[in-house]
Amino acid sequence: MDLGLAGKRALVLGASRGLGKAIAQSLASEGATVFAAARSVEKIEAWSAGLASVHPVKLDLSDLSTVDAVADRLLAEGGVDIIINNSGGPPPGTAQGAERGAWILHFEAMAANLFHLTARLLPPMQDRKWGRVISITSSGVEQPIPNLALSNGVRSAVVGWSKTLANEVAADGITVNVVLPGRIHTERVDELDAAAAKRTQTDVAEVAVKSRATIPAGRYGKPEEFADVVTFLASDRAGYVTGSRIRIDGGAIKAI
Ligand SMILES: NC(=O)c1ccc[n+]([C@@H]2O[C@H](COP(=O)([O-])OP(=O)(O)OC[C@H]3O[C@@H](n4cnc5c(N)ncnc54)[C@H](OP(=O)(O)O)[C@@H]3O)[C@@H](O)[C@H]2O)c1
Does 64 share its domain with 134? Predict the structure, then answer.
């Protein structure tokens, strides 16, 4: 299947490792020109060495001036066709324990600045009558995860924004979707398992076994499996999929 991605320009956020890196690599392998952004630009330079179609970009989503600088640069070059909104996850904690300042801090880096950047990059897509906006959230937006109040709350705002935007720009040939990772085996998941093992004073392998047992597929997803679905959504072939939530979770979310 030709995905029609050759020659498209994509901005992938949170691309120094994990899901963002896998998506950036997948889009590049389909012939897209990829602007891969994160704070640790040196990590992007390392994994993209030798890939002429990947351009590392330094960007801190908690610093609006760097967000605007990236928008200015991309708009000066004609903008992008595809935006992958992705960011780091907030720290764990209860709803009762989350302080006002933490809500504001994480809303800015995981939501407000992504909304702002997307809004700035939309006009060239509207002119060309083609665009893709895909936001990475979490299974927690459908089935809130205990002790992840900030993540459940802020990411739900991304879902509401995404659906609202989808309706506004559908007639311009722009699709807007959110993708829900369940448990995809990135460095972050290893770090979370290691933290859980420390907290409960158990072996990390035991934590991972218990975690996998909660997933009907019986295993964590691979970053490439996740990136394949996102790449399809970003493609020309997915032009009639918009305003949707797409789960990539091995069946982990309990409800249909
Ligand atoms: N993996 C899963 O199973 C899973 C499940 C549910 C939700 N999620 C969420 O999906 C997202 C990606 O997951 P992941 O496993 O790939 O996480 P990850 O390994 O922690 O990667 C996060 C990426 O975001 C970047 N980032 C963090 N803070 C940033 C900032 N202020 N400005 C710009 N970039 C920033 C990081 O790069 P720098 O540090 O270099 O900036 C990194 O490239 C995360 O939000 C995660 O919580 C993942």
Answer: yes
Asked if residue 69 is part of any domain, the answer here is: yes
Please choose, from the candidates 123, 51, 43, 35, the residue with its C-alpha nearest in 3D space to the C-alpha of residue 83. Answer: 35
Cα 110 to ligand 1 centroid, rounded to whole Å: 10
What is the pTM assigned to this prediction? 0.98
Nearest CA to ligand 1 atom 41: 39
List pLDDT tens digits, range 155-213. 999 999 999 999 999 999 999 999 999 999 999 999 999 998 998 999 999 999 999 99
pLDDT tier, 20 (very low <50, low <70, confident <90, very high otherwise): very high
In a domain, 254, yes or no: no
Please report the atom of ligand 1 found closest to the CA of residue 21.
43
Question: Which of 161, 162, 73, 171 has the alpha carbon at shortest distance from 126?
Answer: 171
What is the phi/psi pair of residue 160, to 5°?
Answer: -65, -40
Q: Do residue 34 and residue 57 come from a single domain? A: yes
